[in-house]
Amino acid sequence: MLRIVVALLALAGPMANAEVTILTADRIHTMSPARPTATAIAWDARGRLLMVGNAQSLRQTFPEARILDATGMTVLPGVIDAHGHIMSLGLALMRADLVGASTKDEAIARLREFARTLPAGAWLLGRGWDQNDWPGKSYPTAADLDAAFPERPVWLERIDGHAGWANTAAMRAVPRDLGGEWQPDGGRILRADGRATGIFIDTAVSLIDAVVPPPDAATRAEALTRALASAASVGLTGVHDMGVSVEDLALYRQFADAGKLSLRITAYADGDRAALAALCKSGRYFHPSGRLRMAGVKLYADGALGSRGAAMLADYHDEPGQRGLLVTEPAALEAAMVKARDCGVQVATHAIGDRANRNVLDAYARVIGSSAAPKRWRIEHAQIVSPIDIPRFAKQGVIASMQPIHATSDGPWVESRVGPEGLAGAYAWRRFIDSGARLAFGSDFPVESDDPRLGIYAAITREDLDGQPPGGWLPDQRLTAAEALQGFTVGAAYAGFAEAEVGRLAPGLRADFVVIEGDPLAVAPRRIPGLRIRATWLDGQAVYAAD
After folding, report:
1. Which helix (H) or strand (E) holds 223?
2. Which residues contact residue 119 at a Cβ distance below 8 angstroms, ignoring those fewer than 6 apart?
3. Helix 246-257 crosses helix 217-233 at what angle (to 10 degrees)?
4. pTM over 0.85
5. Residue 301 · residue 327 · CB < 8 Å
6. Is the CB of residue 426 less than 8 Å from the CB of residue 60?
7. Is residue 97 within a helix (H) or strand (E), and if so which, with residue range?
């Protein structure tokens, strides 16, 4: 233990200028078919891998190299989260945390405690509530918040990011009357007797978002700093950041220019807005450091399953007459796809329900053709897919960008939403792989934890951290440990057009890797969430070291 920590600290100083550095470990999983395992890797001062093999051979080849000894450790290729939200993670770390609150009363108690840290008149912002975890599973209301916060505006994002909970003070700030029968396109305002209850779903959340004071520059920089530190601490070296604005990209660029971007960010523009327009005008963006790029756009087809916004082919089992929401009008969605295609921009479309997934597959076929092509267009989430549509992903060359941890979070209530007949294509990783589809794995943080160990564990077991349900939810869809890790490395790299740079440990690729206690491909799956991250490396430099 001590040897690697001392070496890491030393490398941050004078050793950083070494011509060649060698790291030795008990086992190195390369994810490269030519050499699946090794005991040493060597890289140059540019952070490029020179050689992968056994320690003796590398020492003989580079006799003057600096040596880092990771005896007792396992090394993995840098882990890539194929679907996260970096600024949302950073801001969430600065707001009230309602994740895991088991009752409405517990959520409000947490809010009271957090409110003590706020100045008078400031908005109380938070996220992470989930009515599915509460007795009765019914939505909360503004009245629940008003008793505790009669004057301070309160606005709370649901766990999935597709609904919000406001108190009366927050709703009063909206210039438009929220009552009546009207609904925003692609969204829902829940009402009782014609009056807004305080719950806003999908595009309706923008009504409250528009009146929340935006964070200032210092707050945004602090949020990014916290998000980067969190990602490095759990072993992430790369993230596909979904929904990045022009302002977010400018902040990332500032960090990259200053050498402070400790994460490889593949940014996807925030829909058919200014960032996509900039890509079409100026071309795809690549920072010279190799740590920041924007060459794709994130679009939305539907909402989320937990708030019944996912667009379904049949009625929701627990709400007859409701089939979810098409967040973007289909003609506008397809027009954005055509625009992206003509600008040479990769498309990643959020689609959760089976109707949304079919609509997106159909639109992709019209826009880029129905046979597999190197466009690498993606569907984000693909949570409920008709079994007859699953083979279309491979046939059309569409990547299924999925989040294993969603299955263990959502499993307890999914059947109540879609009925038993809807489970055949639910979070169906095994069916996708068996059909020949390419998978890329992520977490959707901060909807879920940014810790990839939890995603790997979920993919293997389909159990939550308490081991429930025993044997896993829909256990025939479980993956092997190697398949799970591939989704977070090779699969994610391919989805981001970066397989020649990252995702494996092989000569010529970047020296992005993670040092971990224990081997996630060998230990009992229940141990994986507890395997300690000892160090995270990017371009041959330590960006995180434990202790």
Report:
1. helix 217-233
2. none
3. 70
4. yes
5. yes
6. no
7. strand 96-97
DSSP label at residue 78: P
How far from the centroid of its chain's Cα atoms is residue 39's Cα? 31
Cα 49 to Cα 20: distance, rounded to the nearest angstrom: 9
Q: Looking at residue 426, what DSSP letter applies?
A: B
Place of tokens 């108690």: 109
Residue 245, CA distances (Å) to 257, 361, 425 in order: 18, 26, 33
Q: How many residues does the chain have?
A: 547
Residue in this structure with the two tokens 């078919």, named with its chain if needed: 33
The Cα 332–Cα 349 span in angstroms is 13
Structure tokens at 364: 């992709």
Helix (H, G, I), strand (E, B) or coil at 110: helix
Closest CA to 164 of 147, 187, 195, 185: 187
The span from the CA of 209 to the CA of 440, in Å, is 31
Q: What is the DSSP string of 508-530?
A: TSB--EEEEES-TTTS-GGGGGG
Residue type for 391, please?
P
**pLDDT tens sequence for the chain (547 residues):** 434 443 443 444 333 335 999 999 999 999 999 999 999 999 999 999 999 999 999 999 999 999 999 999 999 999 999 999 999 999 999 999 999 999 999 999 999 999 999 999 999 999 999 999 899 999 999 999 999 999 999 999 998 888 999 999 999 999 999 999 999 998 999 999 999 999 999 999 999 999 999 999 999 999 999 999 999 999 999 999 999 999 999 999 999 999 999 999 999 999 999 999 999 999 999 999 999 999 999 999 999 999 899 999 999 999 999 999 999 999 999 999 999 999 999 999 999 999 999 999 999 999 998 766 679 999 999 999 999 999 999 999 999 999 999 999 999 999 999 999 999 999 999 999 999 999 999 999 999 999 999 999 999 999 999 999 999 999 999 999 999 999 999 999 999 999 999 999 999 999 999 999 999 999 999 999 999 999 999 999 999 999 7
SS3 167: coil
CB 493 within 8 A of CB 80: yes
CB 8 within 8 A of CB 69: no
- Are 484 and 473 within 8 A, CB to CB? no
